[in-house]
Write a structure and sequence with these properties.
6-stranded mixed β-sheet
Length: about 425
C-alpha cells in the first residue's frame, strides 16, 4: 500500500534548513536555460518546463541542487531519444537565491513570461510563490516538501504525495500528520528499545525534537533527550550521556555540521549504537568526506525515505538512473527523486495525446491517476483529498545503511518494510 506524505521527515529538513539560515541573507538570483537542451529547429514546438531551485542560498551552494540535477539528466536522456511524441522538452532553470523575493521572481518569470507547461522538481527554501503557481493552475510536479505548500494548495504535487484537502489552508485546520513507521521499523526489525534525541537550545530544533520524542514514546521507546547549546555545543557531554543511558538509536534535530561533530564525539567516548538515523537529504555519496573523522559512527549511519536506494543497481530503473547521471561527480537520493519527478511529468505529458500538452491536461493526469511509482523508483505516491486526517495508516519505507567499501546498502524491500502506524499531528 502507499505511504502517506512523510510529514515528519519534511519537518526535520525544514528545521535543519532554518538552523542553517539563521544568520544568512539572500544571495544573487539568476535564471538560465539548460545549455544541453537547444531550441527546436523547425518541426513541432518544444514543450517548455521550469525548475526552481535555491541553488545559491545561505545554507550552501550544493544543498538544494540534487533534484534539479536529476531532473535535468532525465530530460536530457528523454530528448536524446526523441522527446515526447517527437517534441523536445525545453528546460528553463531559475535560481531563487533561497529567498521569498527571489522565489516570487522565479515564479513570475517561468509561469507568466516563459509560459511553462509545468514546474518540475521544485526545491525551494522559501516557496513564497506557491499560491501564485496554484492560482495560475500550473501543475508543480515532484517538488521537495521543505515547507507546507504541497499540503496547502491545489495543482501542487510533492514527490511524497498528500492526503490533505489542499484548499488553501495548511493540512487539516493548520495541522499536518506523520506516521511512526521509522520508529516501528527499528523497534521490530533491529530490536531497538532506547532512543536518544539530540537538539539545540533553539526553538525550531527543540520543537522538532519534541515531535520525534512524541513518536518514539508512541512506539514504546525509552527516550533520552540531549540538548546542547546552539552557539557553543558540548557534543562530547551529550555523547557520554547517551552512552551511559544505553541508547540503541540516535535521532537529532541539528544541522549537518553538528551531526559530524556529534558522530566524532560518539566515536571519541566509545558510544556504540545500532543506528545513527538520518533523513533522505543526507543519503548521499559524500558520507566518507562528511564523516571522515568518525569511522565507527559513519558505519552505523542509516537513512530512511520513500524512494528506492540510488545504489541498488540490481534494479533496472535504478540502473537507468545511474547510467543517465554517470557524468555527475556525486550521487544522492535527491537526484534520484528529481529524476522520478521528471519521469512523472513525461508520463503526464504523454497521456495528452492528440489533445496536445497543456497545463490542464497535465494537471488532469496528476489529479486522476493511480498512485504513481515512477517505474518502481518510488513507493507508490497517493494524492487524495480526505476531509479528516487518518488516525492510522499503512506506511512503507525505504531503508539503507552506510558501509565503508560498499556505500549505502539496502535493508529489506521498500515494498515490504510496511507497518500499520498511528498518525501524529504537529503544526509546521
Amino acid at each position: 500500500m502507499s505511504r502517506p506524505a512523510p510529514a515528519v521527515e519534511s519537518a526535520a529538513l525544514a528545521v535543519l534548513l532554518l538552523l542553517g539560515t539563521a544568520c544568512g541573507s539572500r544571495l544573487p538570483e539568476s535564471d538560465f536555460e539548460n545549455p544541453s537542451t537547444p531550441r527546436q529547429q523547425g518541426g513541432a514546438a518544444p514543450i517548455r518546463v521550469g525548475i526552481i531551485t535555491s541553488a545559491t542560498s545561505p545554507v550552501g551552494g550544493s544543498v538544494f541542487t540534487g533534484p534539479r540535477d536529476g531532473a535535468k539528466a532525465y530530460f536530457d536522456r528523454l530528448n536524446s531519444r526523441g522527446g515526447i511524441d517527437g517534441r523536445r522538452v525545453e528546460v528553463r532553470l531559475c535560481d531563487d537565491g533561497g529567498s521569498g523575493v527571489g522565489n516570487n521572481e522565479c515564479v513570475h518569470r517561468l509561469v507568466d513570461e516563459d509560459q511553462v507547461v509545468a514546474l518540475v522538481a521544485t526545491t525551494a527554501l522559501d516557496y513564497a510563490g506557491a499560491s501564485r503557481v496554484s492560482h495560475a493552475r500550473v501543475p508543480d510536479i515532484g517538488g521537495q516538501p521543505i515547507g507546507p505548500a504541497y499540503d496547502t494548495y491545489p495543482h501542487l504535487y510533492g514527490i511524497y504525495g498528500s492526503l490533505a484537502p489542499r484548499d488553501g489552508e495548511v493540512g487539516w485546520g493548520g495541522k499536518l500528520y506523520g506516521g511512526t513507521e521509522v520508529y516501528r521499523y527499528f523497534k521490530r526489525e533491529q530490536g531497538a528499545r532506547t532512543a536518544a534525541v539530540v537538539s539545540y537550545n533553539q526553538s525550531a530544533s527543540a520543537a522538532y525534537a519534541r515531535l520525534v520524542t512524541q513518536g518514539l514514546k508512541a512506539e514504546g521507546y525509552k527516550v533520552v533527550t540531549e540538548q546542547v547549546d546552539f552557539a557553543l555545543p558540548n557534543f562530547r557531554a551529550a555523547a557520554a550521556d547517551l552512552k551511559e543511558q544505553g541508547a540503541d538509536l540516535v535521532f537529532d534535530a541539528i544541522d549537518t555540521h553538528g551531526n559530524a561533530q556529534l558522530c566524532k564525539a560518539m566515536d571519541d567516548v566509545g558510544a556504540k549504537v545500532i543506528a545513527k538515523v538520518t533523513n533522505v537529504q543526507n543519503w548521499t555519496s559524500t558520507v566518507p568526506t562528511d564523516y571522515k573523522d568518525s569511522p565507527r559512527c559513519r558505519n552505523v549511519l542509516w537513512a530512511t525515505g520513500s524512494s528506492r536506494n540510488y545504489e541498488d543497481v540490481s534494479d533496472a530503473a535504478v540502473r537507468e538512473f545511474r547510467d543517465g547521471t554517470k557524468g555527475l561527480k556525486e550521487h544522492s537520493q535527491w537526484q534520484l527523486e528529481g529524476w522520478a519527478a521528471a519521469m512523472w511529468f513525461a508520463d503526464a505529458a504523454k497521456s495528452c495525446g492528440r489533445v496536445g500538452v497543456t497545463r490542464a491536461c497535465v494537471d488532469d493526469f496528476m489529479n486522476h491517476g493511480e498512485p504513481y511509482a515512477a517505474g518502481g523508483l518510488l513507493i507508490p505516491v497517493p494524492y487524495e483529498r480526505l476531509a479528516e486526517p487518518p488516525k492510522t495508516r499503512r506506511a512503507c519505507l525505504s531503508v539503507a545503511r552506510w558501509q565503508d567499501g560498499r556505500g549505502w546498502v539496502s535493508q529489506g524491500s521498500m515494498n515490504t518494510n510496511c507497518f500499520d502506524v498511528p498518525q501524529l499531528s504537529y503544526r509546521p
